[in-house]
Amino acid sequence: MDIAAIITTIAIIGLMGVMLAMGTTLRMPDFLRVIQQPRALLLGLTGQMVLLPSVAFGLGLALNLSAPVAVGLIVIASCAGGAPSNAVCAIAKGDVALSVTMTAISSMVAFLTVPVFVSFGVVHYYGEGSSLQLPFWETAARIFLTTFLPVAGGMALGRFAPRIAEAIRRPLFLGGFGVVLITSCFFLISRVEMLTSMEALSAVVVFNLMMMVLAYSLGRAMRLNEAEVRSVTVEIGMPNISMSIVVIMGILDAPELIGPTFFFLPLAYVTGLGFAFLVRRFRAPLLA
Fold first, then answer.
1. pTM for this model (two decimals)
2. Domain around 109
3. Closest Cα partner for 55 from 83, 38, 80?
4. Is the dihedral of CA 266, 199, 207, 187 positive or negative?
5. Is 94 in a helix, a strand, or coil?
6. Which alpha helices (H) appear in 109-221, and where do they start and end?
7. Count of domains in the chain?
8. Residue 240 CA to chain centroid, in angstroms?
């Protein structure tokens, strides 16, 4: 096993730890409460599973992006529901239960959605006969094992062994997220030349800001309450960068696609935390 495969394996383990920790925070009443008021959940999931990849594909065409940047952006857009968005949602005083529920659902169905969207992007930009392949069932199985099962396992642990779940939740999340960040830094060091790509940087900035503005505008137009609007905006604006790294390096084995991910990793925190500051500073108090 070469060093790249080792780093990728470590990143996958870190992602599984984050998903398991997130699962321990979930209870069935959380899902039921949100489902009883479904407009925010439907908007959030539609934004994550339909709008994100659709806008990414459209930007690739509108900006005439090169194939690696366009497909890299589609991978990011397909991997919705990053766990750090839940923390940013809390800082923004959004509906954290809604945020966690959206993250959990999008993560648990990612084994079906990611292969569909990424395969479409690969075929469009590289063609049917390209050496870059994303086998559907193998990809679905790997994402199922790294996202769906850990979240489900965390929920079971929280239900049947709540003390253990409480004890491991924080260190597991911080440890797993730290592992993903460290492995991301290794990838960055090994591919530092990609950070000179103004094409990838401009595409990522336009995509991120466009999606956050669109999500916020749709939430206000649908007359969601303020906490729900904030949650939907953060969830749609902060995809699962950890998963995108795993897809690109661990499944596609295509480091040439990683450029947009490197730029999106810090940008999502800048825009997410910036949004949290702005709404707390200038928006009216939350409705009861």
1. 0.82
2. 3-278
3. 80
4. negative
5. coil
6. 110-126, 136-143, 149-160, 162-190, 198-221
7. 1
8. 2
**Burial of residue 281, with CB atoms counted within 10 A of its CB: 0-12 exposed, 13-18 middle, 19 or more buried:** exposed
CATH number, domain with residue 125: 1.20.1530.20
Confidence of residue 146 (pLDDT cuts 50, 70, 90): confident
Q: Write out the DSSP string of 212-258.
A: HHHHHHHHHHTT--HHHHHHHHHHHHS--HHHHHIIIIIIS--GGG-
288 assigned to some structural domain? no
**Residue among 185, 188, 237, 189 nearest 214 (CA):** 237
Helix, strand or coil, per DSSP, at residue 80: coil
pLDDT in tens, 237-278: 998 887 888 888 778 888 888 889 888 888 888 899 899 999
Element (H, E) at 42: helix 38-46
Query: Do 187 and 7 contact (CB within 8 A), yes or no?
Result: yes
Q: Which two tokens stand for residue 274?
A: 């910036």
* Tens digit of each residue's pLDDT (9 = 90 or more) over 5-53: 677 778 778 878 887 887 887 777 766 766 777 889 889 989 998 999 9
Q: Round the CA-based radius of gyration of the chain to a whole number and report it.
A: 18
In a domain, residue 286? The reply is no
